[in-house]
Design a protein that fits this description.
The complex is a heterodimer.
Chain A lengths: L2 H7 L21 H6 L4 H25 L4 H4 L2 H13 L2 H30 L4 H16 L6 H8 L3 H25 L3 H9 L4 H38 L5 H10 L3 H31 L4
Helix pairs in contact in A: 5-13, 6-9, 6-11, 6-12, 7-9, 8-9, 8-11, 9-11, 10-11, 11-12, 11-13, 12-13
Chain B lengths: L4 E13 L5 E13 L3 E5 L6 H8 L7 E6 L2 E2 L8 E3 L11 H5 L1 H6 L3 H14 L15 H14 L4 E5 L7 H18 L2 E6 L2 H7 L2 E5 L6 E6 L14 H27 L1
Parallel strand pairs in B: 3-8, 3-9, 6-7, 7-8
Antiparallel strand pairs in B: 1-2, 1-4, 4-5, 9-10
Classes of the chains: A mainly alpha, B alpha/beta.
Chain lengths: 289, 266
């Protein structure tokens, strides 16, 4: 099979392979031809780095010269120093780990439970249509507003953060799963019935595999939501975690500590995102072709 | 009752309720006697109820009135008695070709190893050798239809219903598939019921052709195709073939016109 056919068949978008030996005609190249040549990766990275460096430099210089009020904004050198302190005394790691644990736990429970519940809707139309509006109603409600109640019920330990993450992810997963399930090809289902299949066989051999790509597509959204839930739970009441750190720092006007916390939170987000993207690729590869 | 009669429809009719609350008579009493091992085509204008007929025979729908008898036993509403293949190949996209063709056996409870052992030589013999571990998205439309047909054959029922299986294929692929189907039929000696729009295809492939009327569907005509077997592609220009085709088309076009008027009225 040629490369182009493989590219067409792949479910995930593939970088278009362009023959770089094609020469532009003598004279000016048109925009269309320019656009087809791939960008130099090194140049892109350099530009990204330069933008980042420019922002940091402007911030530092601006703060030093008094253009930027350090009371509210702090400056990169102070932030770096504070960050180094919390890394040294270990609280950066323990707080990050706390948030990481509750995020992952909430994410896994919410996704698995949501998918399972979503799949049960196939078994009875009455049940599905009765419950669906309640799910949608719950989805429309900002779950973050439930944080105070959840912390009250589950306490200020890990459980309430997990509960927050679950509350947010479970509903989205139910709806995504349900929609994926609704799209199943009816002729496919009928065909499997003509092979003498029982309801359970149709469910396990057709409905579940059909819905799995929808569930996988929700993973990326879910991890972000789970992290948000965990952080907000920590704002309300917690003894550990990056959310607690940021909130506490805000209460005591330690602006550079806030930024240090945000920096760690960004790193955590990135790591989680990469983790999920890798998982998604692995799952989809084994599944769609 | 004729013991050689594999499939019999007695007085089968079907009525549907429309969305607006009215009723539509899809089939008026249909009577069919299909002998074993025959290749029988059903041709009719659009909307005449051919697919409804197949749904009833395969047990997906209950008939309004009448009985469907297979080997003399009533099978109304029972699925899994006949093989059924549609125009869409309906292969499961997440399974390999091999895993797809064994689906019928798997559902019936045959152990996977045994099922695969049965399926592999068939895949090789009928042109899918080398693609056992490919996925449906990686092979052509004609090959997918072949896989779907093999799945139906491996399901091992004596009667197979084919609902316009080659309708979505281009003319050359269709011609190849027709030959391939005849080879398959020769080897397995199934009783085949074949729906098509193409009168030439119907006459070329079959022993008998039933022409259905416009809605409400009933059997308008029954032609016995007395052309010799094995059929050669050159037979389509023979005198007898053309005679049969003329007669069949005459009946069919009258019904097609009625069907067209019905569509306009709606």
């Amino acid at each position: 099979m040629s490369m182009t056919e493989k590219a067409v068949i792949a479910e995930r978008p593939v970088d278009v392979q362009v023959d770089v030996h094609v020469r532009a005609p003598a004279g000016k190249s048109s925009w269309i031809q320019k656009e087809q040549r791939p960008l130099n990766g090194i140049v892109v990275q350099l530009c990204r780095f330069l933008v980042f460096a420019a922002i940091v430099a402007f911030w530092e210089i601006g703060a030093t010269l008094g253009w930027i009020n350090t009371f509210f904004w702090s400056k990169p050198s102070d932030i770096a120093a504070t960050w180094w302190v919390i890394v040294q005394n270990g609280s950066a790691w323990s707080d990050t780990m706390f948030t990481f644990r509750s995020t992952i736990a909430g994410f896994v429970i919410g996704t698995v439970a949501g998918a399972a519940i979503g799949l049960t809707f196939w078994w009875s139309r009455l049940y599905a249509q009765t419950v669906e509006p309640f799910v949608i109603m719950f989805e429309a409600m900002p779950k973050l507003a439930l944080a105070p109640i959840i912390v009250l019920i589950f306490g200020i330990g890990l459980a309430s953060k997990v509960a927050m993450a679950v509350a947010i992810t479970i509903v989205i997963t139910i709806l995504t799963t349900f929609n994926g399930m609704k799209s199943v090809d009816r002729d496919l289902v009928r065909m499997v019935y003509t092979l003498g299949a029982t309801r359970w066989q149709v469910f396990s051999k057709v409905i579940v595999p059909w819905t799995i790509p929808s569930i996988i597509s929700a993973l990326r959204i879910n991890i972000g939501l789970a992290l948000t839930g965990a952080i907000v739970g920590e704002y309300i009441g917690s003894q550990h975690g990056l959310g607690r750190l940021i909130f506490y720092a805000g209460q005591t006007y330690e602006i550079s500590l806030i930024w240090a916390g945000i920096l760690n939170l960004s790193i955590l987000s990135m790591v989680l995102y990469l983790l999920i993207t890798w998982t998604e690729k692995k799952l989809l590869k084994g599944f769609m072709h | 009752m004729d013991p050689a009669c594999k499939l019999r429809l007695r007085n089968v009719s079907k009525m549907f309720r429309t969305a607006r609350g009215g009723t539509v008579q899809a089939l008026t009493p249909v009577n069919l006697d299909i002998p074993a091992h025959r290749f029988v085509s059903i041709v009719g204008p659009s909307g005449c109820g051919k697919s409804t007929l197949f749904n009833i025979i395969s047990g997906l729908t209950e008939p309004g009135t009448g009985e469907i008898l297979v080997d003399g036993k009533t099978v109304n509403g029972a699925s899994g008695i006949v093989g059924y293949m549609l125009q869409k190949d309906l292969l499961l996209p997440w399974r390999t070709i091999l895993d797809n063709v064994i689906l019928g056996m798997e559902i019936r409870g045959t152990p996977k190893r045994e099922a695969k052992a049965k399926a592999l030589p068939l895949l090789r013999k009928y042109g899918l050798g080398g693609f056992e571990h490919s996925y449906p998205s990686q092979i052509s439309g004609g090959m997918r239809q072949r896989a779907a047909l093999l799945r139906t054959i491996l399901y091992d029922r004596d009667i197979i219903l084919l609902d316009e299986p080659f309708g979505a294929l281009d003319a050359q692929t269709r011609a190849l598939m027709q030959e391939w189907l005849l080879d398959l039929w020769d080897d397995f000696k199934k009783t085949i019921l074949f729906i098509t729009h193409d009168m030439e295809e119907a006459i070329y492939l079959s022993d008998e052709v039933y022409i259905m009327s416009a809605r409400p569907g009933s059997i308008k005509a029954h032609l016995r195709i007395d052309l010799e077997r094995p059929r050669k592609p050159t037979i389509v220009t023979s005198k007898r073939f053309v005679e049969l085709k003329e007669e069949a088309l005459r009946i069919l076009s009258a019904e097609s016109l009625k069907a067209y008027d019905q569509e306009k009225a709606v």
